[in-house]
From TrEMBL:
Family statement drawn from the similarity comment of this UniProt entry: Belongs to the bacterial solute-binding protein 2 family.
Region: Disordered, residue numbers: 28-64
Organism: Paenarthrobacter aromaticivorans
Pfam (any one): Peripla_BP_4
Record bears the keyword Lyase: no
Keyword line: Signal
InterPro entries: Bact_Solute-Bind_Prot2 (IPR050555), SBP_2_dom (IPR025997)
Protein name: Substrate-binding domain-containing protein
Record localization: Cell envelope
N-terminal signal peptide: 1-26
Residue ranges of every copy of the Periplasmic binding protein domain listed in the record: 72-325
Length: 374
C-alpha cells in the first residue's frame, strides 16, 4: 500500500460539508442554482490564493558542477510540451543543457533506449508505469544513467537507477480531494458529477480513486467515472463524448476533468446543444491557456492550474541532489504546489503569463538560492 502524505483536510471539510448541508435544508441553493464557491465556502486547508514558497528548501552543500546533459521525454499532448520551458530554464541556471523528445507510448523502452544512445547524464520521462519502462530502464542503468519519472505512481528503486519524480500520485490524489471538496461546498453537499480522466495512466487512476473515496463521504453526492485516452483528446473526440454522457444522465450537474487538454472545446459543445447553463465545468491539472481563457469568460467554474515551469525546476533539483550524493527530497517535499482558482478575476491574473501558472511567485530565485546560484 502506498504511504500517503499527511493531509489536514478532513476535519475542516467535514465542517464545510455539514454547514453546507444545513444551509441547503434551510432553503439554501442546491446544485441547480448554487453560485460559484468563494474562498470562505472552503476549508482553510484548501489553498485559494497563489502560494509563494516552494516545498523543496534544503540547500545543496555547494553549487553543482556545470556541463551536465539532461534528456527530457514527454507525451504528444500539448500540455506535456508546456513543461519543457521549466527544464530548460533550470538547466541554464546551472550551466547544464537539455534535449527534449516526444516518447512513443506504444514502446516506452525503445524511447528510453533512444535517449541512452545520446549519452546524457540524466533522463526524465513521465506518465508511465514501471513495467512499460523495464527493458529500457535496464539499458539506462547499465550505462550508468539515472532515470527520473514524473506524473506516475512508481516508487524509487536506486538499485535499478529509477527515481520517483514530482507530480506523483500523492499530488493528484490531493488535487482530486480539492475538486470534490469544491463541488460539495458549491452544491450544498448534493453534488452529482462525472469525472473524465486518462484511464490508462496510473497517476490518474489514483486520482479517480481518491475522488471516488471523497465522494463516498458525502451521503447525497453521486459520482460517475469516465475513462478517456490521449488519442481521443488528440483527435478532438472528448467534447462529443461529454455531450453524449450528460444527455444520457440529466441528473449530472458537474463535469470534471483530470487533464486540462481534455476540457478544450467542451464548453462550446455543451452550448451548441443548450446544456451549458445546466452544467459546471471543473478542470484539474491544467496548463491550458484555452481553459484559463474559458474561466475568464465564465465557461469554466473552477480549475486547479498545474505549475507548468515549476515541475522542471523541481526535477532538476532532484538531479542536482543526485549529482551531489545527497538524499532525494521526501514524498511530501515532492508534492506539486496547488492553488484552487475559483473566480474569473483570479484566472485573469494568469492571462499576462500566457494563460499558464508558472509556479509559486519567485520560485526560480528560491531554487537558485538553494543551488548557490547568483
Amino acid at each position: 500500500m502506498r504511504k500517503q502524505p499527511k493531509f489536514t483536510l478532513g476535519l475542516g471539510i467535514a465542517l464545510v460539508i455539514t454547514l453546507a448541508a444545513c444551509s441547503a435544508q434551510s432553503g439554501g441553493s442546491g446544485p441547480d442554482t448554487a453560485g460559484s464557491a468563494t474562498p470562505s465556502a472552503l476549508s482553510a486547508d484548501v489553498p485559494t490564493t497563489e502560494p509563494s514558497s516552494i516545498p523543496m528548501t534544503e540547500p545543496l552543500k555547494e553549487r553543482p558542477a556545470p556541463g551536465k546533459k539532461v534528456i527530457v521525454q514527454y507525451c504528444s499532448a500539448p500540455t506535456c510540451a508546456r513543461f519543457n520551458q521549466g527544464f530548460e530554464d533550470a538547466a541554464k541556471a546551472l550551466g547544464w543543457t537539455v534535449e527534449t523528445m516526444v516518447y512513443d507510448t506504444n514502446d516506452m523502452s525503445a524511447s528510453l533506449r533512444s535517449a541512452v544512445v545520446r549519452h546524457p547524464d540524466f533522463i526524465v520521462t513521465s506518465g508511465q508505469p514501471r513495467e512499460a519502462l523495464e527493458a529500457g530502464l535496464k539499458d539506462a542503468h547499465k550505462a550508468g544513467i539515472p532515470v527520473f519519472v514524473n506524473s506516475t505512481d512508481i516508487q524509487t528503486d536506486e538499485s535499478a537507477g529509477l527515481y520517483a519524480g514530482v507530480n506523483m500520485a500523492p499530488t493528484t490524489e490531493r488535487s482530486a480531494e480539492y475538486l470534490a471538496d469544491w463541488m460539495m461546498a458549491d452544491s450544498g453537499s448534493t453534488a452529482n458529477a462525472v469525472y473524465f480522466y486518462l484511464g490508462d495512466r496510473p497517476v490518474q487512476q489514483a486520482s479517480a480513486a481518491a475522488l471516488k473515496n471523497r465522494f463516498a463521504e458525502c451521503a447525497k453526492c453521486s459520482l460517475n467515472l469516465h475513462s478517456i485516452s490521449l488519442e481521443e483528446i488528440g483527435r478532438g473526440a472528448v467534447p462529443a463524448s461529454v455531450v453524449a454522457f450528460v444527455q444520457a444522465h440529466p441528473e449530472v450537474k458537474y463535469v470534471a476533468f483530470s487533464f486540462g487538454d481534455a476540457a478544450t472545446g467542451v464548453g462550446a459543445a455543451l452550448a451548441s446543444v443548450g446544456l451549458a447553463d445546466r452544467l459546471k465545468l471543473i478542470v484539474d491539472g491544467t496548463t491550458s491557456p484555452a481553459v484559463t481563457q474559458e474561466m475568464v469568460h465564465g465557461t469554466v467554474s473552477m480549475m486547479l492550474p498545474q505549475a507548468a515551469h515549476y515541475m522542471g525546476w523541481a526535477s532538476v533539483n532532484q538531479m542536482a541532489r543526485y549529482a551531489a550524493g545527497l538524499p532525494q527530497p521526501s514524498e511530501e517535499e515532492r508534492l506539486m504546489p496547488a492553488w484552487v482558482v475559483e473566480t474569473p478575476e483570479a484566472a485573469q491574473t494568469l492571462i499576462p503569463k500566457g494563460g499558464l501558472w508558472p509556479g509559486p511567485s519567485g520560485f526560480e530565485e528560491q531554487f537558485k538560492k538553494i543551488w548557490h546560484v547568483q
